[in-house]
Amino acid sequence: MSTLASAFTAKVRNLHDYESRIIHGTIPVPSGIDTANNVRYFSQILLTLLKDVPKSPYEMLPFPEKDSARMAMYASLDFKGLYTALVQLLDIAPIIQFGHREFGDELLQCLGCLMPFLEGEQLEGLPYLTASLLSVLPEYLHQDVINTLCFYIIPFTITRKYESREPAHQSVSGLIMIIFEFSKDTAHHCQVLECLMSIKLTLLKDLLCVIAYGTFAARASAAKLLFYYWPTFNSTLFERRGAPPRFTNDWVPFVCQREMCCQGNGRPKSSAEAAKVCFDPCVSITFATNKPPPLYLCIECANEIHREHPNQVFHDILHPLQQVSVSCENKGCRSSDKSVVALCFSTECASYNCYRPIRYCRQCHNSRHNNKRGGDHIIHTCLPSAWDMNPEMQTYLVESIVSLLKEARPTTPEVHKDMTEIQMKAAQFKEEMERSKAIPLEERQLMGRFGVWLLVGLCNPSPDTPTHVLGRLLSMLFHWFHVTAYSFDELGECTLERLKKDYVCEWMGNICKSHFDVYVSCLLPHPPEYAKVGGHWDMLVSRTSHLKNGLNRFFCLVPYTSFTLEIWDQVMPYWLEAIVKDVPEKELCELKLLLSKFLDPDLSILGVEAKKIYQFVAIRFKQTSPRVMEQTLSWLQPPLWKMNLPLTPLYLMTKANQANRVEFSFTQR
User: Fold this and answer.
1) What is the mean pLDDT of residues 116-136?
2) How many CB atoms lie within 10 A of CB 36?
3) Is the pLDDT confidence value at 326 over 90?
4) In DSSP terms, which residues pair with 26 in a beta bridge?
5) Contact 296/317 with Cβ under 8 angstroms?
6) Is the pTM of this model over 0.85?
7) d(Cα 350, Cα 520) in Å, to the nearest integer?
8) How far apart, in whole angstroms, are the C-alpha atoms of residue 211 and residue 258?
9) In which domain of life is the source organism classified (predicted)?
């Protein structure tokens, strides 16, 4: 055994030597084929060791407390050194000159063979390490990477049970993010997500985390899959046909891994879909000598091997979901309301649906999952209300909505006059980078639909709703109104405007009734800290630019029913005071046109007479102190705005309050 350990260590050093020669270009530079041949040695050694173990290590992997007993079954070899060498090979994969397919195949196989020999720390990082191969291996190997993850690594690493911590579970959001970012095939996304849904109950939290903090590509895919897989949380919110994106589950089925499959017609590679799995390493290596355990088999091969080894246990595996159904899939369903409320991934329930995950209505769900049975099933139900979530998940939901609404962009990039040259170049560089990713503006704009559905469906306010959460959502929604005010095409305009009028305005109206103070605070020029989100609050610009953008945001809300004169009377004094105090006189001309749309009776978009427009002025002349009146008059000085103001209603307001003995002077042009 000492001879084997010495040879193993020498081969590990050889891998490090290959890495050094590839990095520095030392002649002869090893090719991908040379490196693959070296890696294949380790796969063969590891499979030989697995074949001789007295007990299947795969049944021990979910239990960290059994790691010591598991490692004691093997010879004392430098498994950690091999793992480190493979990590370093992953880093140099992009600079390998040729032989990428051979290199990728052997690296994936070695990682699968090495998994049962790793200790806790390496096991926890193995899924993320394997997913990282998507960023360095050619696209034609991505399916192999996904298969290795879904069938050989994720089922044995994510399921590890810790008493006080869940490190493998905590990396799931990062795992999803890197797969969604570097694999452009939505079939891969579906395959990985279904694999994770079959083993993790709280996957929804990880998906919301990706939507909240991921890149655009990861966020877009995660949002679509959230609405595609999870049951509708509000069936009356939108038409089901238009809500979830349609995915075609055309991902390549995982085939029987037996070398001479019964359905292979004498060919070494089978085309029969795998339906059973055997975790015994001896059986696996006997019938698939070059594949890491466990062994995935079709029905015929499983039956044939079971006749030869009657003591072996073969477990059922789930097949891919077909096109997601919007009604209960229980063939014996007798409910009058067949709306789906739960999706079960247990093999017991899936056996009623050709071993595919099954969707249940409320009545069937309660029948299949209760105190008597189904307590250990992996079930995914409708998203709960935001206020019923735990604080961490609620934060992810709120930030998901904010991120989705932020994806809406104006049709032209925002370049402010007070930007420095470096800031302007940075803005232009950012725009070029986004264009290079070939992300259509229409797709970015319409991503806001998902945010609106989550907001209106899950965030209906209650008296106990936290003010800072509601204010952040409102402020982000106001920004979304602003950037989508001028749509990019007729279809996009129709879609977004229908969303606003059918759902958002009603939701905003309810907020205005129940939380009027919060609603008004989000429209102020100096809002609370939690409301400083989106648009100009995400940029370093002057106070004038802040006020100009804020007024534009306010301006875009006026055409909708959620805007009232009561809000106008509350908000406008704060805006005029901020403009008088914060805007230099030479920059007031920048606000002239915008203010004319509000204050000039001939141009005002408010659509009311001058008396109602200036009602906020009249209010400040009724039983108020002279100081308040003087402050109000300072807002209306004609030299300040350089535009015509209706003096008649203003004069009548002051005349009605002559008892206050305040002398008013108006300069009429």
Assistant:
1) 91
2) 22
3) no
4) none
5) yes
6) yes
7) 51
8) 40
9) Eukaryota
Residue showing tokens 């945010």? 451
Residue 308 tokens read as 């030869």
Percent of residues in the chain assigned helix, strand, coil, to nearest 5: 60, 5, 35
Q: What is the largest CA-CA distance in the chain?
A: 109
Q: Counting beta carbons within 10 angstroms of the beta carbon of residue 576, is it exposed (0 to 12), middle (13 to 18) or buried (19 or more)?
A: buried
Number of other CB atoms surrounding residue 163 within 10 Å: 7
Residues in the chain: 669
- For 572-592, the pLDDT digits (tens) are 899 988 888 888 878 878 887
The tens digit of pLDDT for each residue in 175-219 reads 999 999 999 899 999 999 999 999 999 899 999 999 999 998 999
Q: Which 8-state DSSP code applies to residue 255?
A: B
CA distance 654 to 621: 7
Q: At what angle do helices 448-458 and 216-229 cross, to 10 degrees?
A: 50
Rounded distance between C-alpha atoms, residue 669 and residue 666, angstroms: 10
Residue type at position 54? P
What's the pLDDT tens digit per position in 471-523? 999 999 999 988 887 655 555 557 778 888 888 888 998 898 889 999 999 99
**In angstroms, rounded to a whole number, what is the distance separating the alpha carbons of residues 213 and 62?**
29
Cα(127)–Cα(150) distance, integer angstroms: 10
pLDDT beyond 60 at 1: no
> Which whole number is the average pLDDT over 418-437?
52
Let me know: does 472 contact 533? Beta carbons within 8 Å: yes
Helix, strand, or coil here: 295? strand
Q: Are 278 and 257 in contact (CB under 8 A)?
A: no
> Residue 172 burial (CB < 10 Å; 0-12/13-18/19+)?
buried
Tokens of 164: 């006080």
d(CA 57, CA 73): 9
Residue with tokens 């007295």: 54
Which residue's entry shows tokens 């209706």?
646
What's the Rg (C-alpha) of the chain? 32
Q: Is pLDDT at 131 greater than 60 in this prediction? A: yes
Residue 300 and residue 272 in contact, taking contact as beta carbons nearer than 8 Å? yes
Tell which residue, 198, 199, 225, 201, has the closest CA to residue 211. Answer: 225
Predicted confidence (pLDDT) per residue in 268-303, tens digit = 666 789 999 999 999 999 999 889 999 999 999 999
Rounded-to-integer distance, Cα 513 and Cα 563, Å: 12
Closest CA to 548 of 416, 663, 435, 456: 416
Cα angle, residue 285 at apex, residues 282 and 291 outer, rounded to 5°:
145
Which among 603, 606, 609, 616 has a CA at the least distance from the CA of 566?
616
